[in-house]
TrEMBL record:
<comment type="similarity">
    <text>Belongs to the EXO5 family.</text>
</comment>
<keyword id="KW-0378">Hydrolase</keyword>
<dbReference type="Pfam" id="PF09810">
    <property type="entry name" value="Exo5"/>
</dbReference>
<dbReference type="GO" id="GO:0005739">
    <property type="term" value="C:mitochondrion"/>
</dbReference>
<dbReference type="InterPro" id="IPR011604">
    <property type="entry name" value="PDDEXK-like_dom_sf"/>
</dbReference>
<dbReference type="GO" id="GO:0005634">
    <property type="term" value="C:nucleus"/>
</dbReference>
<keyword id="KW-0269">Exonuclease</keyword>
<dbReference type="GO" id="GO:0045145">
    <property type="term" value="F:single-stranded DNA 5'-3' DNA exonuclease activity"/>
</dbReference>
<keyword id="KW-0540">Nuclease</keyword>
<dbReference type="InterPro" id="IPR019190">
    <property type="entry name" value="EXOV"/>
</dbReference>
<dbReference type="GO" id="GO:0036297">
    <property type="term" value="P:interstrand cross-link repair"/>
</dbReference>
<protein>
    <submittedName>
        <fullName>Exonuclease V</fullName>
    </submittedName>
</protein>
Amino acid sequence: MIDKKKDPDPSKCKLVKIQGVQTNSDVSSSVINNQEEKSPYAQFRGSKTLFVTDFSSLAWCEFQQHYALIAGGRKETQAMKAGTEIHNELELQDHDIVSILTNTKEDSWGIKLYNLIFGLDSLLTSFKTRELPIFGFVSGLFVYGIIDQVEMKQMGDTFEYEWVISDTKTRMKPFLPNQTNIPPSVKYQLMLYKKLFDELAEGVIDDIKIFQTLQLNPDLEFSNELANFIKINCEDFNEKEKEFKPNLRNLIKVVINHFGKIWKSSNILEVSYKFQKDGRDLGSLYFEYDENQIENHLTKSTKYWKGDRKPEGVPIEEAWKCRNCEFADNCEWRLDKIKELEQKKRALIEITNGRT
Ligand code: SF4
């Protein structure tokens, strides 16, 4: 099945999956018993794929993230809906999208890898791509993400052109925020994108470990629709059709080959802002990649995901975050902090009364 408003040229299309009958489906990440005994990585992600946002959103409030995982996700707000619409519109400005029926988890990963190859091709031919899938390992945990945009740009005073990674955020106010107001979660998200992108560009791709972690059969041929699409639209497959079977083992070879032509991204990262009401461009803010900062955050986050420590809520100075939190009424951390404060107040009153 193909979604089309106009007749798209398939070679200029990214893929999106429609789920068919799963013959070897992944059910391990669904509801899991004995929740307390398992690490959050095992409990909520089936010990397989963590997302870049699984690391970055811990910077806002770990308890909020933990509650959202237990609840099976966050409530979709108006802002989130508007953000998704703007992202979709931006992506469709660049290319069409073809829907493909997937029957196996290998098909689903085949689509991700095809979209990555498609994005890298766009980088090499038009120096810009949107919604680029990337992945890698962080302290042994597999992480996957989709970069909003990578574009070749001239940064600073040098004459050098660099791959600049950017993320698009929507805003309710029609002007740019102050530079100091870029939230740490946004910075960590972009820094982790850069880290993963650069590792791939440097050839750090352990395909065997990826297939093992995700329990994928790299030699299983893709289902017909995807296999045919790849054979027609992916040069390496139509040129060497006989020895190049459409499966994950061969598709990742093409990914590795494409990354061989790409180099590391700029140390300057971009946050591009759009006005939520009408999608209008509000401009961009830039900040510098900080290796120590991201490493410290990843080390701390990994301990949470591996279950080596409990999540933490916000410190008292950031209690304003609780005001709009959907979990505030029953949040253990918040209720404990309120109790602590009341005890302190009582103790203070007793001391003051004792003095008088
Ligand atoms: S109420 Fe506050 S501490 Fe609790 S989850 Fe929400 S933001 Fe975090």
